Amino acid sequence: MTTALAKSSNSQSAYFYVAAGVTGNRKLGFRRASSPRHLAEQLRREQLVPLKNWSVPGLGGDEPARKLKLKDQSELNFQLSQLLSRGVPLVEALEVAASAVSPAVRPIVERLRESVAAGTSFADACRATNVFDPVTIGIYRASERTGDLAGAAAQLAITFKRQLAISGKAITLLIYPVLVLSISVIVSVLMLTVVVPSIGKSLKASGVEIPTYSAIVFSTGEFMRDNILWCGLAVLVLSTIAVFVRKFIFAAFNRFVRKLPFIKDVLLAQESARFFNVMSSMTHSGVPLSDGLVLATQAVSDPKLSRELVRLRTRLVEGGVLRQLIEDVHTLPLATRRLMIAGERSGDLQTVFNNLAADHADEVDRRSTRLLSAMEPLLIVMMFLMIGSLLLSIMIPLMSLANQVG
Hints:
Blueprint: H1 2-10, E1 13-20, E2 26-33, H2 36-45, E3 49-56, H3 70-84, H4 90-100, H5 106-117, H6 122-129, H7 134-146, H8 149-205, H9 212-226, H10 228-244, H11 246-257, H12 261-284, H13 289-298, H14 303-317, H15 322-326, H16 334-346, H17 349-405
Antiparallel strand pairs: 1-2, 1-3
Helix pairs in contact: 1-6, 3-4, 3-8, 4-5, 5-6, 6-7, 7-8, 8-9, 8-12, 8-17, 9-17, 12-13, 12-17, 13-14, 16-17
């Protein structure tokens, strides 16, 4: 029955609907639903009366729902922790949480409430929606066994807030150089196709001796101007190819940036913060350390750190001593390993994991600031190489012309 519920929740079609509001006004729109009945239930919750609906084939039909955003998961878990800790039943807590989350997430929370009200466990209901990651579902399942779903939700809310902060830093690091380089490319293309050919034509007409470098730049600009459609088509084809092979491009780019001096430190701090966030939530929910390592390792994308954590978990299951195995995780800093060993000796790894998650989140903030400071002069140099080289190709023959006139 659980499998059937998962299939019905995952398989959704797109519908075009006509509905009437409370004032009699008509509303048209598209919405994803598992069936016309499910669509009608969604519309009624928004105080809309469904009139007609048509299935739209090929518009997102039978596609798995997207994973919940970190912001939505943080808000959902925060609401659950606040309500459950005060003795509110889970069904009523989900009903209140549905009114607090974003409109896009509201139907998902409503489905969770309906499943829980029908007798399904919260972890199974979350898995059936196919929008929660395995780590979160594992934490919910373990917390239901220990009877501390409120505590697990509170810990997850803290974890997601930290991940949001880390993601914000990563987006900032990406947006700044992308904006600067995009502006540089646009300005360079405009100069190369508009300004450079006009000046080159005037200089050739005046009989000025044009250096080889300037002649190459002028010829390139004239070719791009005369074949602008073909150049645009080539860019479109390359962009289309890049979309299809984006996985290989991202993988190669990921391997490259992990070798750069400043960036690799930021990425390692992000991976460590994510790992300790997951381990903190796992140990708080009562998940055994070996089982928690299985799910926490899935959240780590750094190849070396992932291999060392998998080896640690394997040897721990085989009967190894944790404090000795931690010493073999050389990717983590020495101070981090010493704190983990101290936590293992005191029997309070949950507090150690929580403190290390906060410390590495702060470390991401510090290293990101340093990286942005180091990137600014580098981007200025790159802008000069792109735009300054074009200006130089124009200035050299102009200086020759001024000398001739003098």
